[in-house]
């Protein structure tokens, strides 16, 4: 068998250095997408993450579960969102913070990256809000005699009650875990690799209660809608609290993703000639 043929059937996952190269190549493809296609792809990601959030809340709808079991299994349920994003293909704002590797190598500019981030953030929000509408109309919140709806409001209320500092640092921690999961996904050779690789980092961030801006695009509007309709304590979720959380969590997520991407860029790309 020729050397080229051996490369084609290489079963091993990509090495960290190869993943860093792939992250830059992926970033080039992202900035080349037409805005309309990028927006629709981002809507898919927003909806996918919302589906993971819905699954998480269904599990939380049983208040008799012990804390540790609830957090662990609920976190695994939430993994559905990133599994769909990475395996089905879509544009997720938090994962796109890894585009900074290509910027650091001067393969894309600030303008192209900023444009992508803006389109994807808005697309994620649109997709999450569409999912909120569908999930509400499907009556998912009524499951377990309304226990799921109570859980949805409780999750949202807990998020808007956080201090700005807590939201920011929880946002950093969240996207460190998310981008490490995406990094694993970049290195995977098969769908099974991606799914298994995602589970531990994503379930860990969910179990720890970190703040993911795209997930919160589902949790907070869903909680606000149900709270307005009388689920949970009156006034537990507010529009102002929602806006503050999303803004600060977004900033924290960018920092967290930058820490992951730039660390690997420094290790494997800094000081090397551009290809």
Automatic annotation (TrEMBL):
Its main location: membrane. It holds the Pfam family Form_Nir_trans. InterPro entries: Aquaporin-like, For/NO2_transpt, For/NO2_transpt_CS. The chain crosses the membrane at residues 38-61, 73-95, 116-138, 167-186, 198-222, 242-267. One of its GO terms (molecular function) is formate transmembrane transporter activity. The keyword Ligase does not apply. It is found in: Membrane. Keywords: Membrane, Transmembrane, Transmembrane helix. GO terms for cellular component: plasma membrane. The keyword Transferase does not apply. It is a multi-pass membrane protein. Belongs to the FNT transporter (TC 1.A.16) family. This is Formate/nitrite transporter family protein. It comes from Berryella wangjianweii.
């Amino acid at each position: 068998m020729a050397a080229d043929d051996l490369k084609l059937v290489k079963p091993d996952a990509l090495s960290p250095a190869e993943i860093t190269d792939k992250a830059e190549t992926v970033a080039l493809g992202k900035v080349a997408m037409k805005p309309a296609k990028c927006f629709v792809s981002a809507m898919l990601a927003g909806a996918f993450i919302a589906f993971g959030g819905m699954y998480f809340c269904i599990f939380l709808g049983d208040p008799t579960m012990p804390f540790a079991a609830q957090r662990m299994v609920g976190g695994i349920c939430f993994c559905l969102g990133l599994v769909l994003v990475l395996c089905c293909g879509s544009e997720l704002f938090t994962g796109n913070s890894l585009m900074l590797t290509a910027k650091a190598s001067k393969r894309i500019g600030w303008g192209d990256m900023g444009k992508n981030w803006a389109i994807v953030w808005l697309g994620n929000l649109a997709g999450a809000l569409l999912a909120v509408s569908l999930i509400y109309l499907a009556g998912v919140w009524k499951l377990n005699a309304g226990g799921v709806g109570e859980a949805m409001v409780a999750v949202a209320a807990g998020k808007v009650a956080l201090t700005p500092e807590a939201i920011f640092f929880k946002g950093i921690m969240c996207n460190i875990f998310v981008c490490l999961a995406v990094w694993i996904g970049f290195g995977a050779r098969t769908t099974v690799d991606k799914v298994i690789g995602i589970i531990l980092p994503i379930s860990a961030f969910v179990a720890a209660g970190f703040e993911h801006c795209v997930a919160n695009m589902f949790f907070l509007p869903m909680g606000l809608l149900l709270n307005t309709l009388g689920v949970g304590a009156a006034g537990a979720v507010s529009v102002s609290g929602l806006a503050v959380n999303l803004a600060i969590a977004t900033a924290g997520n960018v920092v967290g993703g930058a820490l992951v991407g730039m660390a690997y860029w420094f290790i494997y790309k800094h000081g090397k000639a551009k290809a």
